[in-house]
Fold:
Amino acid sequence: MKKNFTYRYNPHTLSYEKVKTTFVDRLKKISFSVAFGIVLGVVLLVIGMNVFQSPKERRLRREMAAMERQVRKMSETVKRNESVLRDLENRDNSIYRTLLEAEPISDDLRMSALAQQDFSEIDGLEISALVAETSRRIDQLSHRLYVQSLSFDEVYRMASSKKERMDHVPAIMPLAKNSCSVISGFGTRYHPILHYRRMHTGVDLSAKTGTPIYATGDGVVKVAGRSDELGGYGVAVLIDHGFGYKSLYAHMSEVKVRQGQSVKRGELLGLVGSTGLASGPHCHYEVWLNGNKVNPIYYFFNDLTPKEYEEVIEAANQENQCLS
Structure:
């Protein structure tokens, strides 16, 4: 094959002279071409990676978006479950363990610190913080559920061994829940007859005159009718349930039991009225524990749903005027 030569014009000799190409010149030319090709290739690669996506990249992006949606849904589910568990924990400490005279489960035990997980593999991802937080909450939720499960096992054992006690504890509302309204609760209230604020030691359940009033637990009737011991309570019934519990039903219009009579939970005691220091027909209901008057609201747990129980507590906690 015929070789191509390069010529250069020499103005001194007025002729063309053949240019001699050395090895170094050829090496420089090749190096330049290779370097230019590499730079051009890198530039094109960068442009391609940022502008165009391969089928695999598109599939991975779709999978990441779907994963992020699922993690967010999981986070919302965990949030709802935390709320339900919080309600169970409150009822466990405030009601079940109180009734069984057991020590409540401390927050430190329920929320004890867990071992930190390693999320270094997903560091830098947009959802890494969300994944880490959701995972931490799930672990905490699992631990709290475990503690609550152990607590319920303990409560069940205590309740099973104290069935007789539970039958005597005042554990229902004294009036049918669809026949009355909670007007005033436990605490300092303005008295409608005496016209000053004083401690209201029970709960006022407003109802029509003649509405049945029922025993809230098994026991023996100690007072049935008017009594100097009960003073302004008017016509009333006082039941001794044993185990340190007593319950009082005041301002009745009529009594259906007699002193010394044994009664069962749900048995008719009398009818709603407005006797004594009362401004209208209602049942003033009290619970006494070891001689101390306690908030009866915490004993309305046997015949109320969680929602109804919350509504009763909310109504009883309102600062208003009592009826007696």
